[in-house]
Amino acid sequence: MSLHGRDLISIRDLSREEIESVLAAAKKMIPFAEGKKVSHSLENKIVAMAFFEPSTRTRLSFESAVQRLGGSCITIADASVTSMRKGESLHDTIRMLSSYSDAIVIRHPNEGSARLAARASDRPVLNAGDGAGQHPTQTLLDLATMQEAFGTLSGLTVVLLGDLKFGRTVHSLAHALAMFGAEIVLTGPPSLALPLQSRRHLEHMGAKVREQSDLHAAVRDADVLYVTRIQKERFGDESEYRRVAGSYRIDASVLADAKSRLAVMHPLPRAGEIAPEVDSTTHAVYFRQAALAVPVRMALLDLILGARKGD
What we know:
Elements: H1 16-33, E1 46-51, H2 57-68, E2 72-76, H3 90-100, E3 103-108, H4 113-120, E4 125-130, H5 136-150, E5 157-161, H6 168-179, E6 183-187, H7 196-204, E7 208-211, H8 215-220, E8 224-227, H9 238-244, H10 252-255, E9 263-265, H11 286-291, H12 293-305
Parallel strand pairs: 1-2, 1-3, 3-4, 5-6, 5-8, 6-7, 8-9
Helix pairs in contact: 1-5, 1-12, 2-12, 3-4, 5-6, 5-12, 6-7
């Protein structure tokens, strides 16, 4: 079982055993991510950051991961200053980047763009989010957060709250949770429900999936509350966005009857769906979740791009 030289476009590209391997490697990377140990795994390696959509945590944590491993980055952080503004295709841009680097991390607003990039590149491509499609590295750090909080990924009850229609983090995470036998509880605005095809896929995997319209009831039985924002940028009609904006909010009253070990997670950024008062509770793990992005992405880069023993 080896990830060396492979693309990571979807969480479905990984088996359960491969996910467990990445998580085990990520745990070992924590002291390196914190600067307590030094790694030269990516020495003389260049990773291209091709970000055609805004990003804070994903881009900076990937760049931090590369540098913590002794590598370097070249970065596109604004598509408007690239030759794509002159009409260059994504295919040609990626083909060019693959000749300048040893791997490419891509974020793009169009679903399927990461798969296209993988076909265009002769270097490994990692999907950092493609529209409403997939976000596999976010899923891996989400799983690492749950594993750290509970010591296991098996048998958890996970509430997925919010934008389940367009939320790529939810689409990736739900598949992974099904692989580990979690009970998946869906709640949020009916107009943003999980697509039927996605739900059927989870059920085909043998996952226990149910809907719960009562947020308080959903939280009361949960081990993990995974909150997502309603993504204004995914709506073609702003009036549709306004109809669902602000339709849920996690605050002290919602958490009053929660389990003492409930973990409240969020891929961030948040836009009012979690009250600041939650930050100081033992339930809030979303900032730790963001911090774990670095060791998880370090582990991935090391497994995909790092020097193999004997090389």
